[in-house]
Design a protein that fits this description.
Layout (H helix, E strand, L loop, with lengths): L56 H12 L8 H9 L2 E4 L10 E4 L1 H34 L2 E5 L3 E3 L8 E3 L3 E5 L10 E6 L2 H8 L2 H8 L4 E6 L19 E6 L2 E6 L11 H9 L15
Parallel strand pairs: 7-8, 8-9
Antiparallel strand pairs: 1-2, 3-6, 4-5, 6-7, 9-10
Helix pairs in contact: 1-2, 1-3
């Protein structure tokens, strides 16, 4: 994550406060002020640089808005943080009586936006790769699998039919409707994304309005470990661990009572194309 300010280079006392008292903390050990949401005690040395701290989503969102805007100031705490970190700067108005000062994103702010964009692209690429791996894994088990569907669920959070976008939707290949076993796999490669998803029970309810089984497929962290423990996932959902190109069942998904697949779902499946891997291609036998 991008740092907002440089580390304090000097370990000596701040000039305006004179020499450091016996037992007092050195300047380099002053408590940092973080923009990531964690609260730290502020240093009383106001003229000293704030140590490095990561950008929160709120600060990144505001920085993007300022980059796209005409530079009108908001004059709120978020703007103060960004000004103090050197990611934006205030430009004095040539006509103070006619128009206010404006805000400009600095080179450091543009670098922060570029880094955040690269991280988002990397996360999206990892997500799409795991979606593809999961769909191929299901096809290898003799199922039909779709990705990128937009379905209508009868159990949407609003209490009626509403949109639902599962990462992977699959069916068993069967001529018996009660044996189709519609299943949804939700792909998570980021712990923050997973925790945000778990705080939305209505989203899982919409999934269960379409599927007999719901699974969470969990990617790996930077340390090569699963991003969550199965105990953190609701018991009504199954858990799959993704390790390299392998999926491992950590906890089986309990099956709900079979119900007929609704007509809007059939229409959406008819318009979409199920995934076809090399193993399932009819050209494989030629």
């Amino acid at each position: 994550m991008y740092s907002l300010a440089e580390t304090i280079a000097s370990k000596g006392p701040c000039r305006r406060h004179g020499s450091r008292k016996r037992g007092a903390r050195p300047l380099a050990e002053a408590h940092p002020v973080s923009l990531s949401g964690r609260h730290h005690r502020r240093s009383p040395l106001r003229n000293c640089t704030v140590p490095p701290s990561p950008l929160s989503r709120t600060h990144l969102r505001r920085l993007r808005q300022m980059f796209r805007s005409s530079g009108w100031p908001c004059q709120d705490p978020i703007e103060i943080d960004l000004l103090g970190a050197g990611l934006i700067e205030r430009l004095a108005s040539p006509d103070p009586g006619l128009r206010p000062d404006t805000i400009r994103v600095t080179d450091a702010g543009i670098q922060a936006l570029a880094l955040a964009q690269a991280q988002n692209r990397q996360a999206l690429g990892a997500h799409e790769a795991l979606v593809r791996l999961t769909a191929q894994w299901l096809v290898a088990q003799g199922r039909l699998a779709w990705t990128g569907l937009s379905l209508l669920s009868p159990e949407a959070p609003a209490g009626s039919w509403g949109p639902c976008r599962p990462d992977v939707f699959s069916l068993r290949i069967s001529s018996l409707e009660h044996a189709l076993e519609p299943t949804i796999h939700e792909i998570k490669v980021s712990r923050a994304d997973l925790l945000g998803d778990l705080r939305q029970p209505g989203k899982r309810g919409a999934y269960f309005g379409l599927a007999q089984r719901v699974w969470y497929v969990l990617g790996e962290s930077a340390k090569g470990e699963p991003i969550a423990d199965p105990a953190e996932i609701p018991s009504e959902c199954g858990v799959l661990f993704a390790c390299a190109d392998t999926l491992t069942i950590a906890r089986a998904a309990p099956a709900r009572e079979a119900r007929p697949i609704a007509l809007p779902t059939w229409l959406a499946l008819a318009r979409a194309q199920p995934l076809e891997t090399e193993a399932s291609s009819p050209q494989q036998s030629l």
